[in-house]
Amino acid sequence: MNTPKPSPTSTPSAASGPTVPCPTCRRPTLYRRDNPFRPFCGERCKQIDMGAWAAEDYRVEAPPPKAEDTPD
């Protein structure tokens, strides 16, 4: 008798934990302590994000410094 095998992507939701979208590729990924790349799906997406930080792609807007704040 052939019993169907579960596909690699199907896991019981109660046992697997919460699923969140990967910040880089938006694929669903498990947000658990045993996931060393969380919130990313894997090392590749984690490295892509780190490269964006290093290239200063993420910036926080700030007003220009006042004249009294600049060194002479």
Automatic annotation (TrEMBL):
Keyword set, alphabetical order: Metal-binding, Zinc
Binding site for Zn(2+): 22, 25, 41, 45
Region (Disordered): 1-38
Note accompanying the cofactor annotation: Binds 1 zinc ion.
Biological processes per GO annotation: regulation of DNA-templated transcription
UniProt feature, compositional bias: Low complexity: 10-28
Pfam family, one: YacG
Family under the similarity heading: Belongs to the DNA gyrase inhibitor YacG family.
Task performed by this protein: Inhibits all the catalytic activities of DNA gyrase by preventing its interaction with DNA. Acts by binding directly to the C-terminal domain of GyrB, which probably disrupts DNA binding by the gyrase.
UniProt name for this protein: DNA gyrase inhibitor YacG
Species the sequence originates in: Sphaerotilus mobilis
